[in-house]
Amino acid sequence: QVQLVESGGGLVRPGGSLRLSCAASGSIFSINSMGWYRQAPGKQRELVATITSGGSTDYADSVKGRFTVSRDNAKNTVWLQMNSLKPEDTAVYYCNAHRGPPHYGIDYWGKGTLVTVSS
User: Fold this and answer.
1) pLDDT tens digits, residue range 79-103?
2) Residue ranges in the chain whose pLDDT is less than 70
3) Would you call 50 helix, strand, or coil by DSSP?
4) What percent of the chain has pLDDT over 70?
5) Handedness of CA 2, 19, 50, 93 (dihedral sign)
6) Cα–Cα distance, 40 to 84 (Å, whole number)
7) CB pairs under 8 A, 24+ apart, for 88-91?
8) Phi, psi values for residue 68, rounded to 5°
9) How many angstroms separate the CA atoms of 22 and 20, rounded?
């Protein structure tokens, strides 16, 4: 098993910034990608950003230009820098790690960290 622990969530005003971090531990070998998903109340969980071991990134259209995902492969740690935050960014953010190729393998999830964007 892989354990994922998120941190960095909290309350921030619109236009502000937060930096989330996620550290993987346990059976962390052969983790191919890590990233972030989020789930707002009454909404489906959606992809926010992912990054492969080779550094390729993928972002939701709603966060492009505002969020940046980065990774330290040696530490199996991923960060999400969130700038220009909007109220609609309010959600529980979940760290994700994937072992194996796309559409195969195993996904691991953290317990989530709450981000609230409000005046």
Assistant:
1) 999 999 999 999 999 999 999 887 7
2) none
3) strand
4) 100
5) positive
6) 18
7) 88/40, 88/62, 88/117, 89/38, 89/63, 89/115, 89/117, 90/40, 90/115, 90/116, 90/117, 90/118, 91/38, 91/39, 91/40, 91/43, 91/115
8) -135, 130
9) 7
- What's the burial of 12, exposed, middle or buried (CB within 10 Å: 0-12/13-18/19+)? middle
Number of helical H runs and strand E runs in the chain: 0, 11
Residue 104 confidence (pLDDT): 87
Beta bridge partner(s), residue 77:
23, 72
Residue reference for tokens 């740690």: 77
Q: Which two tokens stand for residue 62?
A: 């709603």
Cα separation, 96 vs 78, in Å, equals 9
Kindly state the tokens that stand for 81.
């820098």
Query: How is residue 17 written in tokens?
Result: 């910034």
